[in-house]
Each structure stands twice: as structure tokens, then as C-alpha cells.
Design brief:
about 350 residues, mainly beta, 23-stranded mixed sheet, 35 strands
């Protein structure tokens, strides 16, 4: 009798632990699917748990449902969203507990994920403990009372149309236990974010290589090393447009712009278009900034190419609004770069930044 009571108590404790982790009331049903069951229609109150590698397609409208990936650390899992709509009270619509990598692909359809209440633990509509990629041909609209998408490792957007409205950050990449991880990259698709805090927030690097990025937030892009290699980027910020600060011990705060089109509009007050607690390097692209303070940096600034427009006037220098940093420079000479070298490359170009371990 004592053994039976002990087993019942253990089961209750396990149930309470799982409920606390997801921050939701236990669903009426929970279904585990494996690679042999790859297509599923969502139902109200029925959670889905994926335990192995494979491609899993979902369709349908449902309330209070979480798709959980709890696979092996070597497994790659792809979720295909085909006309999916999930509306939850506070639990994430998608939770990646474990996997090697998870991809979320939209078919050429409209898909939406909504979380209406804040969750202190899994604080996003999509929450991932591991690498996450978003791609596809369709539209994914996220509305969240917390972050839109939050990852502990890397978040990569390579395609699709991603629309996010968030009460915290739109895209958030951070591991509180490791400041050498937590990155965001955009190489394709269309990303449209309205956020009350940061549009894009990463501990280590933010890299934009292509696509269309439209951000409206307090600070629109925040990370330690921010690199723009391409894309069409529009920023509307009530605070700083782009802010490189020391969030990671693996990088020197730097904003590097090599190509692309960047248009920044700031709100009134003590705001900066591009603010770096370290360096600013402009090697190409077009930068159009409207606001009281266009640039602010504490390290060095170099211009080797590209077009800079400050409040409607084209210039070939970076004017520092900070009293603590050196004057802006064109084709600057020697400088201290993140990899410890004392010299820039040919033509003032800076060498590649170090890779985090």
C-alpha cells in the first residue's frame, strides 16, 4: 500500500513539474508523435510532443495547444505550418525543449501564433532551447504578451514573411548562463516587427545579409557585434536605432556596415541613430539617418566606402556625438580590432571578427 501511494505521489509531482514548466493548465489530452506519424490536424486543448527527427506537417485552428519538440540532441526536426492558427493563454505555441536543430517552414498560406498573457519562464510565442531556423513561402504572424521569438542559441531567418507584435522583444537570443551564445541572423524573407522593447536583441551577434527588415521599437537592433552585409532595412526607434554594447565577453562592441540600404528615424530626446560602446566601420551600403544624434561611439570610427546621409545631407565622415570618443575619420589608419590585431586590412577595411566558441 505504501509503495502504491509513493508511486501516485511521484506521478503527481511529475505532472506539477511539467505544468509549471510550460506555465499552463494541463491539457485535456496530450499526443506524442514520431517519424511514422508526420501529418497532424490541431485540436483544442491537445498538446503535441515530437520525440524524433523528421518532418511534421500541421494544419488547423486550435486554442491552448503547445507543440513541443523533445528529441535527441543529434536530431533535426522540421515543423511545416500549413494554415495553422494557435491561440494560447500563456503557454508558448511552439516549445523546443531539445534537438540539434529545429526548422519552422511555412507553406504558401497564412499562419498565426498568439499568446495573450505573460509567461515568466517560457516567455515567447516560440521558445527554443536550441538552434532555430524560420523559412518558407508563407506568412507567419506572431502576437505575444512577452517576446515574439526567444532562443538560447542561434535564430536564423532565411525566408518567408514574419510579422511580430510583442510586448517585450520581437526577436530575443540569450542564454543567461553563457554569454558566448545567443545570435540572430536574417538572410532572406521579410521581417516586420513592432515591439515595446527591442526589435532584435542578441547577446553576441546580429547579422543581416539580405531580405527586408522593418522595425518599430524602443531600440530596434541591440547586440555586441552588429554586422549588416545587405538587405533593405527600415528602423523607427523611440530610443537608439542600432546599439552595440558589451553583452558578450567574446566580442568587442562594434557596428559594421558593408552593404545594403539602412534608413533610421529616431524619436526626440537623448537618442542615437547608431550607438556603439566600441567601434563603427562603414565599408559600403547606404545609411540614411534622421534624428538629433546620428552617431555615437566610444572606440573608433572608419569610413572606407558607402553613402552616409545625415538629416538629408550627404557626408563622407562619421560625426561623433559623444564627448568621450575620438573624432570620426575617413579611411582611418591603425586601430585595435576585436581579434587583437593593431592594424586594419587594405584600404582601412577591418579583418573578420572572431568567432565565438
Amino acid at each position: 500500500m505504501m509503495k502504491k501511494r509513493t508511486m501516485i505521489l511521484a506521478s503527481v509531482l511529475l505532472l506539477c513539474t511539467l505544468t509549471a514548466c510550460t506555465g499552463k493548465q494541463e491539457s485535456t489530452e496530450s499526443t506524442t508523435i514520431s517519424e511514422s506519424q508526420q501529418s497532424y490536424t490541431l485540436q483544442d486543448g491537445e498538446d503535441i510532443t515530437i520525440t524524433s527527427a523528421g518532418t511534421y506537417e500541421f494544419t488547423g485552428e486550435a486554442k491552448n495547444v503547445t507543440i513541443t519538440i523533445k528529441a535527441d540532441e543529434t536530431d533535426e526536426v522540421e515543423l511545416v505550418l500549413d494554415s495553422v492558427s494557435i491561440v494560447n493563454d500563456e503557454a508558448p505555441a511552439v516549445y523546443v525543449a531539445s534537438a540539434d536543430k529545429v526548422s519552422i517552414t511555412t507553406t504558401d498560406t497564412q499562419n498565426s501564433l498568439q499568446v495573450s498573457e505573460e509567461n515568466d519562464q517560457l516567455d515567447a510565442a516560440i521558445y527554443s532551447e536550441d538552434d532555430l531556423e524560420l523559412n518558407g513561402d508563407g506568412t507567419l504572424t506572431i502576437t505575444s504578451a512577452s517576446h515574439g521569438i526567444s532562443v538560447k542559441d542561434s535564430l536564423n531567418i532565411t525566408g518567408g514573411s514574419i510579422n511580430i507584435t510583442a510586448s517585450k522583444d520581437g526577436l530575443h537570443a540569450e542564454d543567461n548562463d553563457d554569454d558566448t551564445v545567443g545570435s540572430v541572423s536574417v538572410s532572406g524573407g521579410a521581417v516586420n516587427i513592432t515591439a515595446e522593447d527591442d526589435g532584435i536583441h542578441a547577446t553576441t551577434t546580429v547579422e543581416i545579409d539580405g531580405g527586408t527588415v522593418d522595425l518599430t521599437a524602443a531600440e530596434c537592433v541591440e547586440g555586441t557585434y552588429i554586422k549588416i552585409n545587405g538587405g533593405d532595412i527600415t528602423i523607427n526607434a523611440s530610443d537608439d536605432g542600432i546599439n552595440a554594447s558589451q553583452k558578450s565577453s567574446a566580442y568587442t562592441p562594434t557596428v559594421e556596415i558593408n552593404d545594403g540600404s539602412l534608413k533610421i528615424t529616431m524619436g526626440a530626446g537623448d537618442t542615437d541613430g547608431i550607438d556603439s560602446n566600441g567601434n563603427i566601420y562603414v565599408n559600403g551600403g547606404t545609411i540614411d539617418i534622421t534624428g538629433q544624434s546620428t552617431f555615437d561611439y566610444d572606440g573608433e570610427a572608419k569610413v572606407t566606402g558607402g553613402t552616409i546621409i545625415e538629416n538629408g545631407t550627404e557626408t563622407n565622415t562619421i560625426t561623433n556625438q559623444s564627448f568621450g570618443g575620438p573624432d570620426g575619420a575617413q579611411n582611418g589608419g591603425e586601430g585595435r580590432f576585436p581579434n587583437g590585431d593593431g592594424n586594419g586590412g587594405p584600404g582601412g577595411m577591418r579583418p573578420e571578427e572572431p568567432k565565438a566558441n
